[in-house]
Every structure is written in C-alpha cells, then in structure tokens.
Amino acid sequence: MTTHNHFLPYTRWPKELAESYRAKGYWRGEPLTAMLTRQCELAPEAMAVICGERSFSYRELDAASTRLAARLARQGFSVGDTALVQLPNVAEFYLVFFALLKVGIAPVNALFSHNRLELSSYAEQIKPRLFIGSTAHPLFTDGARQSELLVEIGAELVLLDGEAGELGLAHWLGELDVDGATSPAFGPSPADEVAFFQLSGGSTGTPKLIPRTHDDYLYSVRRSNEICELGPHTRYLCALPAPHNFPLSSPGALGVFDAGGAVVLAPDPGPMSCFPLIERHQVNLCSLVPPAVSLWLQAAEADPSVRAQLASLSLLQVGGAKLGEAVARKIEPLLGCRLQQVFGMAEGLVNYTRLDDSDEKIIHTQGHPMSPDDEVRVLDEEGNPVPRGEPGALHTRGPYTFRGYYQSPAHNARVFDSEGFYCSGDLVVQDADGYLTVVGRQKDQINRGGEKIAAEEVENQLLHHPAITHAALVSMPDSTMGEKSCAFIVATEPGLKALALRKFLRSRGVAEFKLPDRFEILDALPMTAVGKIDKQGLRARIAQAIAGDSLPVTTV
Ligand code: OOB
C-alpha cells in the first residue's frame, strides 16, 4: 500500500490574478463536493438523480459516494491519485465522480464513445491507480479483465459497473460491510489544486487533458446558475454525454446539484428517448447539440401532438457547434420553449445569450462571456486587435480558463501567449455589445455535430495502413451534422475501399465518430507555398464535389 501526499502538477494562475479572483468572491476555497453537503442540510430527501426506474435523493447520492470514497481510502487511495473512468449516462457516473472528489482522486472521465486509443492515451498521461468502466461497453464485456487494454492501463484496482461480485462497482457503492474495518480519514484535495481533468476536443496527435481546480470549476458552475436562473425547481434532462463540459457544468448536472434541482438521465439525445422522459419527469431545462435539435424539430413537425409532451420544457440550451439561423428560428414555435445559445470550451470560457436578450441576439449570436473578469481579445494574423464587427482569432483568459494542458509544455508554448491568453483556435466576430458570433476555425479540428475530431490523430492512424503513404483529414459540409470528415489519401495500392479502411481504423481502436465519413484517393496531396498540406484547397475541393460542381474526385 502506497500513500501519496503530493498534489498533481498544473499551471497555476499568476498570484496577483488568483488573489483578485478570491477577493471578488469567485474562488471561495470550497471543494466541488460542498454542493452535496449543503443540499443534505437544506433538503436531504429532495430528488437529485433520476436514472431509468431508479432515483437518488441528495442524502442517497451523498451516502453512496461516501461509501465508495471510504472503501477507496481503505485501499490506500488518497489526494494526488488519479483515476480513469468511463461510464455511460447512468447515475453511477455522478456517484463515482463525487466519491473520487471526496478522496482527492482526480479522474479523467472518458466519453462512452471513446475506444481503446483514447483510453490508453489518457492512461499513459495520468498513470491511473484506479480504473472504473462498464460492462455495457464492448471493450469491457465478460472476460475483459484479462484484456491487453487493462494491462496497458495498468491500474491496480479495476471496478466494473454491471459486474457481479467483489470487483463490481455496485458492491463498492453498496452498504458498508459489518466487519468493523475503519477507513483512514479522507478528504478532497485543496480547492486550488486539481479536482479532475476535463477532455480537450483536441487538434494534435494525442488527446490533451485540461486540469480543472475546485475553485475555478465551481465558480463557472455558480456563475452559470445565476445566468440560467437555476433553482430547486429545475428539472434538467442530461441527454448529451454526461462528462462533457456542457452537460456537466454549463450549468449542467453540477449546476443542478448546486441549486438543489433534479437531473434526469437520458441514454441519448434522440427525440424517442427524450420526449417521454420530459413528459414523465416534467423536465424544464435541457441542453443539446445542433444535430439533435434538428431531430427534435423533425419529430415535432411530423407529429404536432408531441408538443404536448414538451409542455414543461421552458429553456433549451444549444451549443457545442454552430447553430444555423434557420434551425434557431424554429425552436420557439415548434418546441414551445426559449432558446439559449451556449458557446463554450472544456478549456474554460463559456458564453451565453442571456434569458432576457432580444430574439435578434439569441438567434444570431453565441452570447457573451459569463464572467465580468473573462478577458477576450479578437486578433488578426499579426496578433493585433481587429475592430468590432471584424473576424479574428479568439484569445481569452479569466477566472475559470485553464493555464496549460497537463504535462504538454511544447503544445502550451504554441497555444498560450506571453500574457497567459489561451488561443482557442476559433474565429469570431465581436459586436458592439460584446456578443460573439463564431464564424470559423483555425485549429486543425473537425466539429462533427459537436463531437470534436483532431485531424492529426486520425491521419496518424491512417498512416499505419501498409498501403497509405499520405493522409489528410478535412471537414466537409453536411446539412444535418454541420460538418463531417473526409480523408484524402495517397496509396501505393489500387482498389482500397472505404469499408475496409474504416474496419482497419476500428481494429486500431479508433472511436466510431472519428472514422472518416468519406475517403478520396489522390495521386498526391496538394501543397502550399511553404510546403504544408493545402487543407483549405482540399476542403474547397470536397465542398465543390458535394455541391455537384465539376472538380474530379475519386471516392472509394
Ligand atoms: C464545448 O466544448 P468542447 O471543448 O467540446 O469544444 C469547444 C469548441 C469551441 O472552441 C468551438 O470551436 C466549438 O467547440 N463550439 C461552438 C459552440 N460551442 C462550442 N462553435 C459554434 N457555436 C457554438 N455555440 O463544445 C462546450 C463546452 C461548454 C459549453 C458548451 C459547449
């Protein structure tokens, strides 16, 4: 048994700024778990989580997470340890999250859509002592305990949700044994230390991790609650992947817990799953990505009677990717609720349209920063500020925007300026009132309906194919997803087929949503004057081909 008494390293805010964030009451020195303690005093029997036929009051949520925390402490886990967690949208996600926070174990909460490649990369970066997964995931069905992946992850304790027996998660969350064994004292990490790691959408070969402290994350949650007016009346449908920053903290489930409301879990954001849950549990708040909104609108258009199912819904938040104007306009008339646009990032900065904004602002903009201390700069290619109304690159820093990816000095040197501003890679226009509209992107990423794909990561995997010598992944326009991905490849062998190429990527552990939607074979990739792959040219080429224009393409 090893006891660690070190804190995880991370890039801190400069002392002066940290002091001012404290003086202004943004950072309160409280752990994220304080929200549970408080609700247990205020209204312990109020419903906190509804998951299928199961529900958990605040008292139960607190008690179950404490039981798991106590057992982990008994195993020698403590502040400074890390965990890799992968759970679907089930109550256990929150039980586990709070349990780990209570012991000071910082988790990476992988998305359920993540596959071998993401999990091993996260494990490589944080070296977790604990892995918590689910037998509902193809990687961890029966027999997975002997898998190479688990060996590679290298955790000394592996708990699986859905598994019976001593190493099943249910056992660890269950009533404490009567063997009288006591746990050593345990508690969360200090509020200005790493609470957990958020996932970056990525633009490089390896998925990067974002250290989030209790102080900064809790501030973002509380400020979101003020703007979105959450309270004990809030019944929030969590239909997006629970670990994502949007449904977790903007204001998301943590906002709901801090406000004393209830989180209703949906397995997916489709109307078939969500509409009945909204009606049954009288949901009044939900957050979605644009493609899901389109599905909801289609369902409401096809059968106007479904609107009755949505009667309780008062606010629909939409973010993660650009919401088209035409779609935005239909939300209120067809779904009978107000729209709020949310433009955020796991790295920090979140912008909201405000509840009392004009329709004009709500439909045309992605809102403005939530904190008065969010600093935003919109810069041209030379790094000079552009006039309001002109497009430029979004740079930001503030009380909940991180200062560096975990253990990535080289990458950090590229995406932070000398004053600690983070270059988000988004191109935005800021209007006279400070509202931002996202107009494009600099980072080498595809935003597939809110799911982010780092081009380089997929290209590296394609290059492992024996017949592929060059690969470039670019976005192509898509009417429902906004963007899909197209891989341009150069091959030494004729007759490669998309089906086989996807199968190859899958066999290498690439997540399903990262598999290219289309493959194009070229004799050579076009180059720019400075010798880089001309991705702009490739994007134009595929967009033209889709629009039915004449440029030759060889789709496989
Ligand atoms: C959210 O977080 P991430 O980390 O998955 O992705 C961030 C990126 C942004 O840099 C931007 O490129 C894009 O996603 N994005 C949007 C957007 N919201 C995010 N692009 C256009 N319009 C929007 N409304 O996606 C995220 C985190 C917290 C709250 C909401 C979204």
Report on this structure.
By secondary structure, the protein is of the alpha/beta class. Among the domains are: 15-42 and 52-211, Rossmann fold, CATH 3.40.50.12780; 446-555, GMP Synthetase, Chain A, domain 3 (2-Layer Sandwich), CATH 3.30.300.30. Helices cover 32% and strands 24% of the residues. It has 18 helices and 24 strands. The strands form 6 sheets. The protein has a 9-stranded mixed β-sheet, with helices on both faces. Strands 4-3-5-6 form a 4-stranded parallel β-sheet, sandwiched between helices. The chain has a 4-stranded antiparallel β-sheet with strand order 16-17-18-19, with no helix packed on it. A hairpin with a 5-residue loop joins strand 18 (422-430) and strand 19 (436-441). It is globular and about 70 Å long. The model has no long low-confidence stretch (mean pLDDT 96). It binds 5'-O-[(R)-(benzoyloxy)(hydroxy)phosphoryl]adenosine. Residues 201, 245-246, 250, 319-322, 341-346, 350, 366, 424, 426, 438, 441, 447, 452 line the site of 5'-O-[(R)-(benzoyloxy)(hydroxy)phosphoryl]adenosine. Pathway: Siderophore biosynthesis. Its EC number is 2.7.7.58.
Topology, number of strands: 24
Distance between the termini: 55 Å
Strand order of the largest sheet: 2-1-10-9-11-12-13-14-15
Overall mean pLDDT score? Answer: 96
Say which molecules are bound, naming each kind only once: 5'-O-[(R)-(benzoyloxy)(hydroxy)phosphoryl]adenosine
Please state the structural category.
alpha/beta
The portion of residues forming beta strands comes to 15-25%
Briefly note the CATH topology name of the domain at 15-42 and 52-211: Rossmann fold
DSSP summary: helix tally: 18
Radius of gyration: 23 Å
Largest sheet: 9 strands, mixed
List low-confidence stretches: none
- CATH top level of the domain at 15-42 and 52-211 is Alpha Beta
Question: What fraction, in percent, of the residue positions are helical?
Answer: 25-40%
Overall shape: it is globular
CATH architecture of the domain at 15-42 and 52-211: 3-Layer(aba) Sandwich
Domain AMP-binding enzyme C-terminal: 457-532
Protein name: 2,3-dihydroxybenzoate-AMP ligase
Enzyme class: transferase
Keywords: Ligase, Nucleotidyltransferase, Transferase
